[in-house]
Amino acid sequence: MDDFNITIDPSCLQEAPLAIDIIEQLDVLGIILYSVLTLMAALSLLVYLEECVYIYRKVPSPKKTTIIWVTGAAPVIATMSCLGLWIPKAIMFTDMTSGSYFAIVVYKFLILMLEEWPCCCCCPCLPHAPVTRRTLFLLKFGSLQFALLKTIFTIISIVLWANGNFDLSDLEITGTAIWINPFVGVLTIIALWPVAIMFMHLRNTLRSQKLIPKYAMYQLVLVLSQLQTAIINILALNGDIACAPPFSSSVRGSLMSQQLLILEMFIITLVNRLLYRRHYEPLPAADQHEKDNAENATIILQCENGDNMA
């Protein structure tokens, strides 16, 4: 009977508060925390913009566009997390924006590995090549589908939310979120598989291009922005994260996720600057590829003739 006498703060059952409500509730420690996190997000964006200027001037096309996309994952997520930190009602939109951007980054990172290995566009037509044109097409398509479908499902989710049919906390079988989110998860796994295959194929060849630490940062962004956020949200939905008025349990879990992401993406942005802000050699021209193909074919023919004569 004692359980029926427990009172619940009405704030724990309310929706996310407005930005002005958060500002009015901040104490000295809260002001310091929000100020430091906002500064980190701003510095991440400034570091990224400075890196974009350097890459645009120093890196030949089309590699510079790909690098700008890939290195933008951490600062974009940090910026969206900062917006969600100050405006909790917009957390769903900021998370979806970050997820859509990272879906494009998955495809762009695959393209980056191919561009760092310029011979891959000509090697498939040679005998005994480990990667065929058909395989290369399937790998690209596997990542590209995620970039396209993730954006499409994000738009659909926003439209359904506006109509009152999409709620992340609704885990009933009749809810739309319980169908859309697992399907997007399957698309994510399908998209990550081609990138992992290509990395295993090129990790030794592109060791001098620092491919291993670049891939590690890419994987870290994936784990922190997707898996970490999902775990915290699940804990919040189960009530394992206590309510702290004016924040409900789910809103407080989302804010904790945003705070962690800002700090983590700030560090990753600095590491990416060390990895990508370097001198890039221009990619060989197409005619040079054709010349290499002709020379390789000649060598193969000479070897085969020598074996026949023997």
TrEMBL record:
Gene Ontology cellular component annotations, sorted alphabetically: membrane
Chief location of this protein within or outside the cell: membrane
Keyword field: Membrane, Transmembrane, Transmembrane helix
Membrane topology recorded in Swiss-Prot or TrEMBL: Multi-pass membrane protein
Location(s), subcellular: Membrane
Listed InterPro entries: Ostalpha/TMEM184C
Protein name: Organic solute transporter subunit alpha
Organism the protein comes from: Synaphobranchus kaupii (Kaup's arrowtooth eel)
